[in-house]
């Protein structure tokens, strides 16, 4: 049984169809990447999986349970965690403070634990260490560099104790050094979390992904290994030839 299964997902806004009978799976422990041109519907598909966008047709199943009728917070509690194209966090909080928030939400422990300290601090420190931000724990989040903000959102995703990470262009806007660091972090997480990765850096995708699906104009036109995707003439004509 696949961890995530999307069945014939369809979403449209007026006459614009953004996902057109999309079906795919994500297996436990794998990195499944989704690539395609701008406007293909990739981020919309992530929103359909998390519940931020309501499907017009089709189904989403997670660990054998149909979840497309559940609200966002109930899907998150089942183990879905999303990181966005533009990092989402509280700029007035410290790095550590931001990483505490998903833990409080996950355990439903309430804000009383904010002042109790030790358990939350220890958990936050573990996630900050994993994301490379331990030295910046007490820095106001608004003062982080762009790459550090990406790492903070990744740390916040860890704190939600996810079973599946949905990553929306984690390399967007990063310089070469930050990109290499992020690729290394994602590689180190491989097997610990299943990941569904939307990314335009195709070389990073080919280096990381176990499977790759290609979305063009709302439709999956190919799915397979990096070698199969590189060699697919339809993919080269519709997308890779433009890169």
Short précis:
The chain has 243 residues and is an alpha/beta fold. The chain folds into two domains: 1-79 and 162-243, P-loop containing nucleotide triphosphate hydrolases (Rossmann fold, 3-Layer(aba) Sandwich), CATH 3.40.50; 90-161, no CATH class.
The overall pLDDT average reads 87
Number of strands: 10
Tell me what the CATH architecture of the largest domain is: 3-Layer(aba) Sandwich
Name the CATH homologous superfamily of the largest domain. P-loop containing nucleotide triphosphate hydrolases
* Main beta sheet: 6 strands, mixed
Which stretches are low in confidence, meaning pLDDT under 50 for 5 or more residues running? none
Could you tell me the strand content as a percent range?
A: 15-25%
Whole-number radius of gyration? 18 Å
Assign the CATH topology of the largest domain: Rossmann fold
- The backbone outline, from C-alpha atoms, is globular
Query: What is the end-to-end distance?
Result: 35 Å
Count the DSSP helices. Answer: 10
Helical amount: 25-40%
The top-level CATH class of the largest domain is: Alpha Beta
Category from helices, strands and their pairing: alpha/beta
List the helices and strands and how they pair.
Elements: E1 4-13, E2 16-26, E3 31-35, H1 42-50, E4 57-62, E5 65-66, H2 72-77, E6 80-83, H3 95-107, H4 113-116, H5 118-131, H6 146-159, E7 164-168, H7 176-189, E8 194-198, H8 202-208, E9 211-216, E10 219-224, H9 226-231, H10 233-238
Helix pairs in contact: 3-5, 3-6, 5-6
């Amino acid at each position: 049984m696949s961890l995530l299964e999307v069945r014939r997902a369809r979403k449209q806004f007026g006459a614009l169809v953004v996902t057109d009978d999309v079906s795919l799976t994500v297996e436990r422990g794998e990195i499944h990447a989704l690539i395609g041109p701008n406007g293909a519907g990739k981020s919309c598909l992530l929103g359909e999986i998390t519940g931020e966008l309501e499907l017009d047709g089709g189904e989403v199943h997670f660990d054998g349970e149909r979840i497309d009728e559940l609200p966002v917070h109930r899907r998150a509690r089942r183990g879905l965690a999303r990181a966005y194209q533009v990092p989402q966090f509280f700029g007035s909080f410290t790095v550590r403070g931001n990483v505490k928030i998903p833990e409080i939400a996950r355990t439903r422990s309430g804000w009383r634990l904010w002042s109790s300290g030790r358990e939350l601090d220890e958990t936050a420190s573990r996630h900050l260490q994993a994301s490379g931000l331990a030295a910046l724990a007490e820095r106001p989040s608004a003062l982080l560099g762009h790459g550090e903000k990406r790492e903070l959102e990744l740390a916040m995703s860890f704190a939600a104790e996810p079973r599946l990470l949905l990553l929306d262009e984690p390399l967007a806007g990063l310089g070469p050094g930050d990109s290499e660091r992020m690729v290394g972090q994602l590689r180190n997480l491989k097997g610990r979390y299943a990941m569904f990765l939307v990314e335009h850096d195709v070389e990073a995708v080919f280096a990381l992904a176990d499977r790759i699906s290609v979305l063009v104009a709302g439709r999956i036109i190919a799915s397979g290994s990096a070698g199969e995707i590189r060699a697919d003439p339809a993919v080269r004509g519709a997308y890779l030839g433009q890169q």
